[in-house]
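Please fill in the sequence for the structure shown.

STRUCTURE ENCODING:
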């Protein structure tokens, strides 16, 4: 078990109900220091509720939750000095000008470096005198990221941070995270529907479904545990797959804890990507969500 000094988030049996809907139904989640964790699930899986609980914005019905050693709901002011958050919708005040926003943050946040933020914005097309409301979606995200980087937070929480951005902006966003923010001591928790764009930066992945974590794994463990086989439709399988479907290239099967050697004699063996693995692990109920987690 990880010690508290190496654990950024420790959540056990989190429960939250809205009427008859169980948004969180016994969620377990652990994020270690220096890890980049992808929280993946279809709409309605409980991801947003989980993030709101981690940020102290939602009171839980039951469970144990610690973020950087704090109870998020009771010690939110102290926690927010060490946590940064980028949401899927613009939450920066649209009526403020860029330089006014930076000055305000410098006045209220003890760890914010105004000089650092200004320096980072000089590499963008964002002018200090511009109102935030007239910035493009891409510029809005660039501004938010510059602010976050200038805070040097211990934990960065990203909720669909590149939603609505074109491919180039999305790639730049994640490159900036890796090159300028992630140091190996900080941690990142990210939710996104663009799984294929981030799986190469993740150290760990958590699949959520109906308020629970149905798979938690380090990325390095996945090739050792899961295998994808593509073979002719008529192939007689010696092992039972956890999922199978027809594709343009033949029968596609996902196996758990099956050696590669006997599968290689049947067809092409590889490691499933995260979108394929999500469909296999969550099951038929995830088919309608395939596009949203691809």
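FILLED IN BY: designer on duty
SEQUENCE:
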């Amino acid at each position: 078990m990880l010690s508290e000094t190496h654990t950024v988030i420790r959540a056990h049996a989190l429960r939250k109900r809205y009427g008859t809907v169980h948004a969180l139904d016994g969620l377990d989640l652990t994020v270690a220091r220096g890890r980049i964790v992808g929280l993946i699930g279809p709409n309605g899986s409980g991801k947003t509720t989980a993030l709101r609980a981690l940020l102290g914005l939602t009171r839980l019905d039951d469970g144990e939750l610690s973020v950087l050693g704090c109870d998020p709901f009771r010690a939110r002011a102290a926690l927010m000095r060490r946590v940064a958050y980028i949401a899927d919708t613009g939450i920066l005040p649209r009526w403020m000008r860029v330089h006014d926003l930076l000055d305000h943050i410098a006045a209220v946040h003890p760890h914010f470096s105004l000089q650092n933020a200004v320096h980072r914005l000089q590499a963008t097309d964002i002018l200090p005198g511009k109102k935030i409301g007239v910035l493009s979606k891409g510029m809005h995200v660039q501004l938010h990221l510059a602010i976050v980087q200038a805070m040097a937070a211990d934990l960065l929480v990203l909720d669909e941070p590149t939603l609505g951005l074109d491919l180039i902006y999305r790639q730049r966003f994640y490159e900036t995270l890796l090159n300028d923010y992630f140091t190996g001591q900080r941690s990142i928790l990210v939710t996104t529907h663009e799984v294929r764009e981030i799986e190469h930066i993740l150290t760990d992945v958590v699949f959520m479904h109906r308020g629970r974590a149905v798979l938690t794994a380090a990325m390095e463990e996945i090739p050792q545990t899961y295998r994808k086989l593509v073979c002719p439709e008529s192939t007689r399988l010696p092992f039972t797959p956890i999922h199978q479907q027809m594709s343009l290239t033949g029968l596609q099967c996902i196996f758990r804890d099956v050696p590669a050697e006997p599968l290689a004699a049947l067809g092409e063996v590889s490691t499933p990507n995260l979108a394929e693995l999500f469909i296999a692990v969550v099951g038929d109920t995830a088919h309608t969500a395939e596009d949203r987690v691809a």
